[in-house]
Structures are given as C-alpha cells and as structure tokens.
Amino acid sequence: MIRNDLWINGVNSVDSSSPQCVKLEDNEPLTLQSDGDVVIGGFFPLHYVVSESQHSYHNKPQTTLCSGFDQRAFRWMMTMVFAVEEINNNSNLLPGVKLGYRIMDSCDNVHTSLQSLFSLVNDKTQPETSACLSGSPIPAVIGLASSSPTRAVAQTLGPFNIPLVSYFATCTCLTNKNIYPSFLRTVPNDLFQVRGLVQLVTFLGWFWVGTIGTTDDYSQYGIQAFSNQFKQQGGCVAFHLTIPTSPTMAEIQEMADRMQSSTAKVMVVFATEGQLLDLFIELAQRNLTGLQWVASEAWVTAGLLTSPLFHPLLEGTLGFSFPGVRIPGLKEFLLNVRPSLKPGMELINTFWEEMFGCRSSLKVSSDESKDAAEIPACSGLEDLSLTTSSYSDVSQVRISYNVYKAVYAIAHALHTLLNCDSAGSDKRKCEKQNPFTSQQLLYYLKTVNFTDQFGEKVYFDSNGEPVPLYDIINWQKDIKGKIRFIKVGSYDGSGPVGKQLQVKQSTIVWTRGQSQVPVSQCSPSCPPGSRQARRTGEPHCCFDCLSCADGEISNQTGSTECIKCPESYWSDKDRVKCVAGVEEFLSFSDTMGIILVALTSFGVILTSIVTIVFHHYRTTPIVKANNSEISFLLLLSLKLCFLCSLMFIGQPSVWTCRIRQAAFGISFVICLSCLLVETIVVLLAFQSNVPRSRKLFDPSHQRAMIMCTTAPQICLCAGWLLGAPPFPFRNPAYQALTGKIVVECKEPWPPGFYLVLSYIGLLAFVCLLLAFLGRKLPDTFNEAKLITFSMLIFWAVWISFIPAYVSSHGKFSVAVEIFAILASSFGLLLCIFLPKCYIILLHPERNIKKGMTGKFLK
Q1: What is residue 795's predicted lDDT score, i.e. its pLDDT?
Q2: 20 to 30 A from 625, CA-CA: which of 436, 468, 605, 676?
Q3: Which domains does the chain have, with CATH numbers?
Q4: CB burial of residue 779 (10 Å; 0-12, 13-18, 19+)
Q5: E strands within 493-534?
Q6: At 105, which helix (H) or strand (E)?
Q7: What is the pLDDT of residue 679?
Q8: What average pLDDT score do residues 35-55 get?
Q9: More confident residue, 448 or 733
Q10: DSSP for 384-421?
Q11: DSSP letter assigned to residue 648
C-alpha cells in the first residue's frame, strides 16, 4: 500500500500545501560568506578528523563534529577569498558585477561534504518553496581536496549541471564524463605525472629501475600506471618494494637489503615524506649512496628530508612538482586577517583560536565548562607576522595557486556569459540583469582560455582537465651546504609529441654531486656487430650479447635485432656493414657446365636415335621379345633422366630447387621399374615348370606393376617437398677463403633426399638380384645378363657418388650429382639397348624368332 503522506514523530510533515524542498537540519554548518551579484561556493578540508556518527533512527541526524584544524587548508580557503576580492577590484574582468562566496568545511569526509553541499546550495534568504539543487543560488562550486569526497559531491551535482572545479583531487576516475559531467579541475590528474615521469626516465636512458611505494591508493595507482607505461617504452622494473603502514625494523632492513643487492641504481618513489622517513634513516646509516632518486610530487619538495643526515643519500634527487608561484599581495592579505563577531566569520575565528590558543569573545561570554573558561580570550590584536606556519609560507604556493586559477576560470566564464565585452554609452559593464543557469555557466567554463598574470595558459580539455604542467625539481646543495629545490626543466603534457619534456641537463646535479648521468642497467649494451639475446626467465633488460649470424649486421650499440644484408651482399668480418658478394654456382657458361650440358645433349640425342630405331623396327622379333611398350617407356624415362640433369645447372631458384630432385628420383624409379618388369618377363619366359605364366603376367599386369613401384616414390617426393622443400641458399662458408658466396639448394631435411636414393637403390637391388638369378638362361639372347651388367654399373656409380657428394661443396657437389645421373643413364642406355641396336642394324640375320624365346612372341 502506497501512502500519500509522510509522518515524522507523529506529525504529518507533507501535505498538498507543503513546500517542495524541506530542510531537515536545525544547525547550519560554519560558513565563511560574502554577498554578491554572483555567489561562488567553496569546500576546503579545514578539519581532517571526523567523529563517527551514531544514528538512532528516532531523531533527526545531528551535524557531524570535526576536529584537527589544518592551517594549510585554511590558507587555500583564504586564497579563494583573496582571488574574489582581487577580481572585484578589477574593473576589466567583471565590470559592474560583484562576486560573493559561500565557503564551508568539508572535513575531508564524504558524509560531511554532502551535508555541507545541501546546506551550501540551499539559499536561506529565499522562501522555502524554492527548489533545492535545480534552483540553486550557487551557480558554481570550488572543491574539494581529496578524491573520495570529490567523487561524492561531483556525482551529486552532475545531474543538475552545477560546475564543480577541484584544486587537488587527482584521481583519474574523475575523468569519466558519464558519471561526472560537470566536474573540472585545475590540478592535473595522476596519469599526466606518470607519463611525464616515464618520459623523464627514458629520456635519461634509465631502463632498469626499482620502484618504491606504500599501501595507499595514491601510491598503488601511481606505481601500477608507471610500471605499465614504462614497460611499453621498453623499460624493466627490477623490483618493487611496498612500505607497510607501520613498518617494523626487520621489514625496513629487508627492504634496504633488497636495494643494496640490486643492480638497479635508479629508484622511482610514490610516497610521502613521513612514509619514507624510516627507510631513508636506515639507508643513511648504511651509507648507501650512489642511488639516483626519482620523486613524485608528494615528496619532491619535502623539507623534512632536507636534513643533513640525508644529504649524501638524496643529493641529486629529481622529481615532478606542480608549478609554484609567488602571488603578489597574497602574503599581506593573509597577515591582515582578523577575527570578528559578525555572522559568517566563524571559520576565521576558529583559525584564530587554533593559531594563538585562545577563545573568541563570543565563546567566552557563553555559559560553558570551567576548563574552557580558563582559556584566555582572543583580543584580535595578535600579530600573525610573528608566527611561523604553513599558513603564512607563501614563497612558492602550489595548491593555493590551483585555487587561485579556479576562481579566475569561473570569472572568465562569467565574463563571456554576461557579455562583459560589450561597450556601453559611458563605460563598459556586464549584462548582469539577464538571468542565467548553472548549465550555461558550465558551457562557458569548459571553453575558457586565458593567460594569467604568471604567463600560464588556463583552459580545460574535453575531460575538464587543465594544462598538465609540471616543474622538474633537482635537489642541489648551495654554498652553505643546504639542500635547495632547483627547477631544471618542465613538462607540458599538452605540447606536441617529442617536445613535452624540456630538461636543462647541463644544470642537473646527480647523485653524489656527479656531473655525469648515472648508469642503471641489468646488462651492458651490446656493441655493433652483435645483438641482445634475452635470458630465460629474466626481464628483457637482462640479456647476453650474441654475434650476428653470417649475412647479418648491426651497426648500432644496443641493437636488439641484426639486419639481414640485401641480396647479393654479405656481412664483413666485423658484421657492421654489408659488402657486395660474388655469387658462385654451376652456370651454363662455366667450362664444367658446358661439358655437362654437352654430355646431356649427347645422351638425349643418343636416346632419341635408339627410340627411332626401335620404332622403325618395332615389328621385328628382338623389339617384340620384351613388350615394345615397356621398351619405349624405358627409353622415355632415360631421356627424362638425361634432361633432369639440366635443372641442376644455372642459378638455383625456388622452383628448380624443388623440382630437380623430385624429377631425378621419379625418372630413375620409372626406368628401374621398367627394368624390373623386363627382368620378371625374362625369368617367366624360361620357367617351363610354371603353367600359364604368360596369362599371369600379361601387359596389363606389367603396366600395373610399373605404376605400383613408381607410386611410393611419387608419394615420398610429394611429402618431402610439401613438408621440407629445398630452397635457394647463399652459403657464406667459403667467402672468407674465396671471396665468393656459393649459391646452392639447401636441404632443410636431408633424410628426404637419402630416402629417395634409398628407394632407387632398393629397386636396383631387386633388379640385380632377379637378373643374377637368370644369368644362365640360353645364350641366344640373354636379356638377364644385360640387365645384370647395367645394374652393376648403376650400383658402382651411385656407391661412388655418396662419398664424393658428401666431400664436395658448392658447384662441385652439383657436378658430382649430375655426373652420377649421366653415368648411370648412359650405363642403362648402352647396356640395355646397344646390343639390340647392334643386332638390328649390323646383324639383321640374327633378328629372327629362332634366336628369341617363343613363349611371348605372337
């Protein structure tokens, strides 16, 4: 059931006549305020300790109590007041418009910040019927200091398009415009600092560093982002140390031992000075000097660490800091602050009480405890110039400067929004009578672009980020032996790539007061002519130096890869440059090549003549005796054997390297398969004890046997060429001796070639064995003896070939193989066909059936 009214303590608090916005708090938080035509809100962490609220859910929640006054944050707040008054006194920026302010204490806490937020945007001077956030009298808010409260406030103001300009919240998460659409800031987020530190470290040649951090979000995010970007730039993190919240002496000593034993000499640190104190004391006691420290902005200007105890350790420290300026008139303004009993001055009174240990007159007059009454009353005449605190130290303000820029950014946005550039009849004035919304102000705030009195450009990018400007600080000793923070460069993240980092390297003093950049490396850079080889299980910055392979060079120190020389070039003996090489291979123009081509041509011609003779006398008994079809196939295969030798001559190419061995292997297998079939035919022809042998081994069976014995070689060659094909290779092995590069076909899998030869040898052995068995057949025409003799020549040639081939190199090994092919081909041709041609041409009287076996003659 849904009720239409709301009961609180038994009273109906909402009805049809109730206002739309109801204030539930009775106590207003302390506020510093000043009226104006446009009132700017402000949040500052004046207190940093918040008491834990106890909610009973029976009474309205009370205002949260805060303690622990922060004088530095009070200076930030008064800088906002100073900037507002400075703008009001400037007749050029907002003529005719008076800025006001309403500043509250956020207590650096999410809950108190939200409580103050709703009080801030609720104008008590207007009737309670006014809307809450949607009709807020505060068009813009400056704050907050830390990221968590800032995220809460920014997420609340975002849907209402009320601008929130932060001066110290650096979390990268706040760049999400979907969640924080109205958030802007005048302080760069942590990502810019990390980018700058990575550029600084790599610019100085440090790719082997150690990192030190703490357990808080600032340190963990910073170290993680730095490590990721550093690795992308080729760097390596040697180790990472995390300082516990309350470290023991054993933990401190263990971290010091790790740093002392490491080869890394550069330490990148994201922490505060207080968190580093114990570790630095231990390192100073060990006199562990020679380490180059790289500091984040959190401790790069820490006065606590400038004690003489740390001089030998920290001299030469480098790091990033926000740009520091000296704002004219700010110190005088701060020293002129005085307490007052006027409404809206309670925060100043609180500061005065904390500074001088007194109580304001208002509190003395109230009826409070006896102990509180014993505290002396504040006269208001106390002199701030006699005090020394972070409040009055304005020599180089940084966060205060961010507050100062935030106020001026809002003023410049109002300048454009109120059309303050228009010229009136008498003098220029802003059109303040025209109402505007926070959304309109947000639009113009995002587009501000001006240069302040210190020469810095102030504008926001698409994410509401400012110009990422940093000073590079170097810790140097002055003539009195004191550490001074000297600016030695700058970083502008908005600059073009390659020009963002500006470093005056000659002005930097390094660790131990040295003038040379320290070296931090796991392994020394490899000299020219070598490359880096990463060590297994170690970062890529740890490597060994390996000489470049033949045909490759490296002409720079620290090369990670060797460069392959262009074709027809080779590396010199130092492998630092490529020189033109003379290629050597068995060419057609060489004397040896000409002789081999001539022998090949002679073999092809001789085979062709025999083929013609056999074709012409194909009807004679001597041709028909062994199946003329097989004889012609044998002659064709022999011709292919001769021709395949030509593929071994000339400059090797991809296709000649692949085809020549396969052509050689298959051609010889066809040839030997034909001889095997002929041998079987001869044996069966004279086996009278085998009935019907002719029908068992007719021509169809012969052809099938040739195909079956050839198929394994074809499959073997196909698998070899598909799996590990030979390829052209420029072999430099003999360049140092001959000055020439041998171009040859390299066998990536030598067993493939030897398997091809083995199968040829197997067929030859079977042929030899069967022919040997038929050696005692009738002598009228003993085909078996001819085959036996041809196989003996074949075996003699190829047995001699193997040692000669293995012991030869370059074009000579190619010549040996060609000679073996030609010799075995000539042996087969002459032994098998020369006797038959002799009978056909010179003794035709013997070419009769009577001289042949008649079993296979039709």
Answers
A1: 83
A2: 605
A3: 29-53+60-187+396-466 (3.40.50.2300), 190-321+469-513 (3.40.50.2300), 530-580 (no CATH), 591-851 (1.20.1070.10)
A4: exposed
A5: 501-503, 530-534
A6: strand 99-105
A7: 81
A8: 82
A9: 448
A10: GGG--STTT--TTBSHHHHHHHHHHHHHHHHHHHTTTT
A11: G
